[in-house]
Amino acid sequence: MKGTAKKRMAAAVLGLAVAAWALPGLAMDGVFEITGAGTLTNPGSYRLTRDISIFGGSCLVIAADDVRLDLNGHQVYGGVVIGAHSGAIVQASGVANLTVLNGTVSGGWGPGIAATGTGARVMSVRVHNCTGSAIVLGDDAAVTDCTAFSNTLGSVTGAVIRAGDNSRVENCMVLDNSGGSYSGIDVGDRGAVERCMVGGNGVSGSLLTGVRAGDDARVRLCSVVSNAGPVAADCYGIVCGTGAIIERCLVVDEQGGGGGIQAGPQSQISECVAENLGGTAFELNDAAMRRCVAVSNGAGAVYGYSCWARSNTVVESFVAWGNLRGIYHPTDDQDAQIRRCVVKHIVYDGVEPGSWSDMRECLVDNIGDNGIDAWGHAARIRDCHVLDAGDVGLFMGGTNGAVVGNSVVCTGTCYYFNLPNTYGEVTNAPHNGFTKENPWLNFEF
């Protein structure tokens, strides 16, 4: 009796194995129906008819061009055999134009979906609990309306969602993932990331970046929120290469020693907000930033600036409020333009113009140390107003600068000029209807 039961159990297990690797059948509508794990060797449309799984090897291998895989609301489970496969859904080498949509991918020792050939599309897919990246695609790819959560990248340096050059990631969420050092979303050169959220991710290594994009990329309408790592870790919100455009993005509650938004040369940042970050809110090099806001940043870093502006940088219509440090243009760098900015409630220096910088029409108020601290050579300070600086209101430590049409109101030293500098009258006492509400009325030439 016991022997008969064992034979029946063995037959049942064998039957399941055969069913799991059964070849796809052709449905009435011309779509191949998939009932188990296996390799897809022909182009065309495929559709899952049930959840499928495997415990060793990849669950589905795509070995043909131009495959459209509709998960049909079902789940592909990759199994937990360590080192046994390279992903739950894997595209073979040299294969292109895979589309995966409408379902869930979970588990597995490797990425959820790995399609590194060109032209891949992943749409409306949830990927979770993978030991590796959620989605890894090649060039000319698109990821839309997807969610990647609770994946563990281990010590691997990678990304939860990664796509190559000329790729697009849109309307996606990357939530509650963990790993050594990685990015939430990473696209290559000329890529685009739009309307995405990266939040609640943690890092045990040295680097966590919410959104990373290459040269000539565009990041728009994205939120990077509450990602955290050790104090020594660099946790950044958005990092882009040369010629990038970053618009209407929000970076909030990024902890560790990193910062908010970094942009390479010839980049443009506009209408972005960085709030409650451990490090510097904005870092620019030969770039332009307009109509941005930095609030309550820098608590986790020695150099937690509202904005770090390198050479040939434009900072315009910028509000810095309640940060550790204000706007910083290093003395070794040149030709920054700081215009129509408001810098208030700063612990240390308000604005530090470097060599050949041009600062004009700025309001600097309630500053712990120097309001304007210009150590660079040939700095130009014009039409600015300083209120309530803890040390010196307007300090010109460099030489050959020009200071014209400014006003300073403070209880300590209002201004100090190193020689030789050229300056016009600096107003430091109420006169002729002096008003804090409209400091532009206080300029004298």
Structure description:
There is one protein chain. This protein is mainly beta and 445 residues long. It has one domain (88-442). 4% of the residues lie in helices and 45% in strands. It has one helix and 53 strands. The protein has a 34-stranded mixed beta sheet that branches. The radius of gyration is 28 Å and the shape is elongated. The model is unreliable at 1-22 and 430-445 (pLDDT under 50).
Give the proportion of residues in helices. Answer: under 10%
Q: What Rg do the Cα atoms give?
A: 28 Å
The first-to-last residue Cα distance is: 108 Å
Shape: elongated
**What's the count of strands?**
53
What portion of the residues fall into strands of 2 or more residues? 35-45%
How many helices in DSSP terms?
A: 1
Q: Give the biggest sheet.
A: 34 strands, mixed
Number of domains: 1
Q: pLDDT average, as an integer?
A: 85
Structural class: mainly beta
Unreliable segments of 5+ consecutive residues? 1-22, 430-445
Topology:
Layout: H1 2-20, E1 25-26, E2 32-34, E3 38-40, E4 44-48, E5 52-53, E6 60-62, E7 67-70, E8 75-77, E9 89-91, E10 98-106, E11 113-115, E12 121-128, E13 135-137, E14 142-144, E15 147-149, E16 157-163, E17 168-170, E18 173-175, E19 178-179, E20 181-187, E21 192-194, E22 197-199, E23 202-203, E24 207-213, E25 218-220, E26 223-225, E27 234-240, E28 245-247, E29 250-252, E30 259-263, E31 268-270, E32 273-275, E33 280-284, E34 288-290, E35 293-295, E36 305-309, E37 314-316, E38 319-321, E39 325-328, E40 337-339, E41 342-346, E42 351-352, E43 358-360, E44 363-367, E45 372-374, E46 380-382, E47 385-389, E48 392-396, E49 402-404, E50 406-409, E51 413-417, E52 422-423, E53 426-427
Parallel strand pairs: 2-4, 3-6, 4-7, 5-8, 6-9, 7-10, 8-10, 9-11, 10-12, 11-13, 12-14, 12-15, 13-16, 14-17, 15-18, 16-20, 17-21, 18-22, 19-23, 20-24, 21-25, 22-26, 24-27, 25-28, 26-29, 27-30, 28-31, 29-32, 30-33, 31-34, 32-35, 33-36, 34-37, 35-38, 36-39, 37-40, 38-41, 39-42, 40-43, 41-44, ...
Antiparallel strand pairs: 1-2
